[in-house]
Amino acid sequence: MDQSAAVWLVLLAAVAAANLPYFSERVLFFGPLQKPKSVAWRLLELVLLALACLGLGFALEARIGQRQPQGWEFYAAAACLFVTLGFPGFVWRYLRRGRHAD
């Protein structure tokens, strides 16, 4: 896999992972069904999926070549990007109007 394909793979995985907590009512995706699922569970899932995407990126970087050391700035920017990628799911879950709303 070349570098361009690895970047696109990580970005597509991040978009899917950032929106996934908002579309599932199961705790950690395999647990019991909760209606409505609390915001704390959604935040925990968001953090776990962000770490999984970060791990995927690190694994692909190591496979392509040597991993580069990162400072706190990289992790802060990655967290902000991940939360921004999850905005469509947040809007769908919390901001859209219901079918029966006026």
Condensed summary:
With 102 residues, this protein is mainly alpha-helical. Helix content is 69%, strand content 0%. The longest helix has 26 residues, at 39-64.
Model description:
There is one protein chain. The longest helix has 26 residues, at 39-64. This protein is mostly helical. It contains 4 helices and no strands. The model has no long low-confidence stretch (mean pLDDT 89). The chain has one domain (3-95).
Which helices and strands, and how do they pair?
Layout: H1 3-23, H2 39-64, H3 72-85, H4 87-95
Helix pairs in contact: 1-2, 1-3, 1-4
What's the N-to-C terminus distance? 51 Å
What is the percentage of strand-forming residues?
under 5%
Q: How many β-strands, per DSSP?
A: 0
Low-confidence stretches: none
* Secondary-structure content class: mainly alpha
Give the tally of structural domains: 1
Q: What is the percent of helical residues?
A: 55-70%
Protein name: DUF2818 family protein
Keywords: Membrane, Transmembrane, Transmembrane helix
Pfam families: DUF2818
Transmembrane segments: 41-60, 72-95
Task: Using brief descriptors, characterize the structure shown.
69% helix; membrane; UCP019883; mainly alpha
